[in-house]
């Protein structure tokens, strides 16, 4: 049996799990958001990271099941945290393949209605590389997401070849600076600071990824990112582990 065979039906067998990683507000240090990250609990091989199964899922179409499950989990927990009096924004990763089908808009519209999530509570993350290949089509789809009350985040900024000019006209609410940019610019960062300021002027929230050390956080503070995510604040964990942290923090 190959991993590809095993991945078939993995959602129905409850082998896919949503982990959540906290994001802190740089100004206050409080957890104000989380990102949902998929994990596959393989019956024989144990926990498999997304790099090893998301590409297979995208190639085989299984990403539609996995993606729908992750959106459901994201919305479900966002609603639960809200009922518990916590104000937590939830981000969910969506593949280009997923975004190219009308189903995803219908599912999101239904989920938001069912769980009564206020506008802007859920943010969809799409990667920079997915956006650039098909700019006009993607812009249309992002507008649709915005129209149903979702935030739209451009993930992994700095890993592709997109320029600020290219993303300027995209209807994004957030931009995530890739960990490579954060980790390689601790001594400088002047250029990133300019980009951050430009985006913030247009109302775009800027999130720094891969914040592992005090030096990384120092850079993030110097370039005035809005939020930060990384091992310094917490790894992706199951909700059972995150809930006590959230309850203690707010
Ligand atoms: P991503 O969306 O860029 O997610 C951030 C990744 O960076 C996560 O890896 C996270 O665990 C890792 N990370 C967080 N903080 C740090 C840090 O301080 N240092 C370092 N070195 N890494 C950090 P993960 O969970 O293995 O996910 C890898 C990628 O798989 C994600 O990158 C995303 O592109 C994809 N992925 C994960 N879940 C899903 C999903 O539900 N749907 C889709 N389409 N893709 C997903
Ligand atoms: Ca992401
Ligand atoms: Ca990223
Ligand atoms: Ca990535």
Written overview of the protein:
There is one protein chain. The chain is α/β, with parallel strands linked by helices and 250 residues long. It has a single domain, classed as EAL domain (TIM Barrel), CATH 3.20.20. The protein is 46% helix and 22% strand. It has helices at 3-7, 50-60, 63-83, 96-99, 103-115, 128-132, 135-147, 164-168, 179-184, 190-201, 214-222, 239-249; strands at 16-25, 31-42, 46-48, 89-93, 122-127, 151-157, 174-177, 205-208, 227-229. An eight-stranded mixed beta barrel has the order 1-2-4-5-6-7-8-9, surrounded by four helices. Strand 1 (16-25) and strand 2 (31-42) form a beta hairpin. The mean pLDDT is 94. Bound molecules: ligand C2E and calcium ion (CA) (3 copies).
Secondary structure layout plus pairing:
Layout: H1 3-7, E1 16-25, E2 31-42, E3 46-48, H2 50-60, H3 63-83, E4 89-93, H4 96-99, H5 103-115, E5 122-127, H6 128-132, H7 135-147, E6 151-157, H8 164-168, E7 174-177, H9 179-184, H10 190-201, E8 205-208, H11 214-222, E9 227-229, H12 239-249
Helix pairs in contact: 3-5
This protein binds ligand C2E and calcium ion (3 copies).
One calcium ion binds near residues 35, 93, 125 and 155.
What fold name goes in the CATH topology slot? TIM Barrel
Class derived from helix and strand content: alpha/beta
Q: Compute the number of helices.
A: 12
What compounds are bound to the protein? Answer: ligand C2E, calcium ion
Total DSSP E strands: 9
The separation of the N and C termini measures 47 Å
């Amino acid at each position: 049996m190959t991993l590809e065979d095993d991945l078939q039906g993995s959602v129905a067998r409850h082998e896919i799990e949503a982990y959540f990683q906290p994001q802190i507000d740089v100004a206050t240090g409080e957890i104000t958001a989380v990102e949902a990250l998929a994990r596959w609990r393989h019956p024989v091989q144990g926990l498999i990271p997304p790099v090893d199964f998301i590409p297979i899922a995208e190639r085989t179409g299984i990403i539609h099941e996995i993606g729908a499950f992750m959106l459901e989990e994201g919305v479900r927990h966002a609603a639960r945290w809200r009922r518990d009096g916590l104000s937590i924004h939830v981000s969910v990763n969506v593949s280009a393949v997923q975004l190219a089908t009308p189903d995803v808009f219908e599912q999101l519209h239904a989920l938001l209605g069912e769980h009564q999530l206020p506008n802007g509570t859920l943010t969809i993350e799409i990667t920079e590389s997915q956006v650039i290949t098909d700019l006009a089509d993607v812009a249309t789809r992002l507008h649709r997401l915005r129209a149903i009350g979702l935030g739209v985040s451009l993930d992994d900024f700095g890993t592709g070849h997109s320029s600020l000019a290219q993303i300027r006209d995209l209807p994004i609410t957030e931009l995530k600076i890739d960990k490579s940019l954060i980790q390689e610019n601790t001594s400088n960062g002047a250029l990133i600071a300019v980009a951050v300021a430009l985006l913030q002027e247009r109302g775009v929230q800027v999130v720094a990824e891969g914040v592992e050390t005090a030096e990384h956080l120092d850079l993030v503070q110097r370039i005035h990112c809005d939020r930060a995510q990384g091992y310094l604040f917490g790894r992706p964990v199951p909700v059972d582990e995150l809930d006590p942290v959230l309850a203690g923090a707010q």
